[in-house]
Amino acid sequence: MQRVCFLLKVRADRLDEYRERHETVWPGMLRALREAGWRNYSLFLRQDGLLVGYLETEDFEAAKAAMEATDVNARWQAEMADYFEALDGERPDEAMRPLTEVFHLA
């Protein structure tokens, strides 16, 4: 099982709205994530907009590719893109760059 952690930056003027959007994630998006192999997926948001994502999956590249193949993900990413800073033309899911794990207490 791979443990994946990534960072993104939510725009300061959109923090409350971003939180609200994640209180009602579309059922189809939740289903697609599960079917693509995303497990134990969490998002943590710091007051300054730093977003820390964590998930577990058998194969992160395969899990991302499975999501990229879904229509619901394309619609979700299009709606969420305006919430983020510094995407450099990428969708939010394309900007997720895994951090290197340096320690894990098993």
UniProtKB/TrEMBL annotation:
It comes from Streptomyces daliensis. InterPro entries: Dimeric_a/b-barrel, Rham/fucose_mutarotase. It comes from the Bacteria. This is L-rhamnose mutarotase. GO terms for molecular function: racemase and epimerase activity, acting on carbohydrates and derivatives. GO terms for biological process: rhamnose catabolic process. It holds the Pfam family rhaM.
